[in-house]
From TrEMBL, chain A:
Name of the protein this chain belongs to: Proteasome subunit beta
UniProt subunit comment: Component of the proteasome complex.
Record bears the keyword GTP-binding: no
Keyword hit for Chaperone: no
Family (UniProt): Belongs to the peptidase T1B family.
Domain Proteasome beta subunit C-terminal: 226-261
UniProt xrefs under CDD domains: proteasome_beta_type_7
Subcellular location: Cytoplasm; Nucleus
UniProtKB/TrEMBL annotation, chain B:
Keyword presence, Chaperone: yes
Any single Gene Ontology cellular-component annotation: cytoplasm
Source organism (scientific name): Dictyostelium firmibasis
Keywords noted in UniProt: Chaperone
UniProt xrefs under Pfam families: UMP1
Keyword Transcription: no
Highest taxon of the lineage: Eukaryota
Family: Belongs to the POMP/UMP1 family.
InterPro entries: Ump1
UniProt-recorded name of the protein: Proteasome maturation factor UMP1
GO biological process: proteasome assembly
Amino acid sequence: MEHLNRGGFDFDLCNRNNVLEKTGLKMKGFMKTGTTIVGVVYKGGVVLGADTRATEGPIVADKNCEKIHYIADNIYCCGAGTAADTESATALISSKLKLHKLSTGKETRVITALTMLKQMLFKYQGHISAALILGGIDINGPSLHTIYPHGSTDQLPYVTMGSGSLAAMGVFEAKYKNDMTKEEAIALVAEAISSGIFNDLGSGSNVDVTVIETTGVTILRNYQTPNERKFRNNPYIFKQGTTPVLKQDVAPLSTKVVIEDIMMS
Amino acid sequence: MQSIVKKDLELPTLRNESSNVKGLSHPVESIQLDQGKTEIRLKNFAMKNVFGSHMVMNSEIEKQIYSQFKRLPTLPSSNIGLETILGYDEDFDFGDYLCDPASSEAPLPQLHSAMEHRLGMNSSKSIL
């Protein structure tokens, strides 16, 4: 009946990889964002926070990666799990949402993005390893949702995800209160992420914060940098004469190279 | 008060039809192969319960009509009518940017041999 010839994932190399693995070849790992991501709803908006470390097994692959992704002008999403999966899933849903907005002619709602993400993740049965925190503000006010890799979702006033989620949740459970001000919310989020950075191996480097409110979005990239790398203070500049000069021979360039001026007609 | 809720909804099966998962190189391959069919099953279920089963038949016939408009065997068809009624013109998926079949490296058969095969004219020449 319908034989739409569409693209999609190509599995040609999977068999080859399986055979190689059986012969003993150790496959290259993939980049994960073993991570601390948090979100909090305050009076008038949502604050999202994330650390900036991306790991590849025991190695830090990226010391300053961005984990807070753009979905729409009023919706942002933090991603934990396989870095490629979170980035491609959020980019895909961002494009889908834009098409949807253009066809309906209305402002995007957070639950639309949520439904699209959860349907896609459930369709792939958890193989897309993306644990997301979706936060945004729309006609129904500010809202915050979590999405797990298999497709289940939650709506809560404060959420944490990732390997550092327990450290961050400890901070939230102790200090969260309803109807905080923007400054209180940002401080709380920064404290929760710092707790994840210092107490979890998979999280580290800097704190990223994004504030979403009705008037707009404020992106505070590297809001706190508690792990600054000290720069080297010994430049390799040696003055002439440090190494004794025995002989000096200067040949002007015109003896080796002919320089011509060609008139362009 | 008597409730008129229909308790016996025939829910669509979400199991993939390509059950030979071991033959495939990755479990996601079976998901991808059956993607269209699963979506259609879910849509038909919703349509049947909202509009009635006649609507399902109607849309199936429409799809069959639109899928007849294709180019000759090895040439790429745009399938614009079919994609429009399926809703793919206003949607975005992995298939829209990954592994475009127009730029695949697999060699296509010759158009003439494909047409001969379709018309049942493929007489193999023998030296005897």
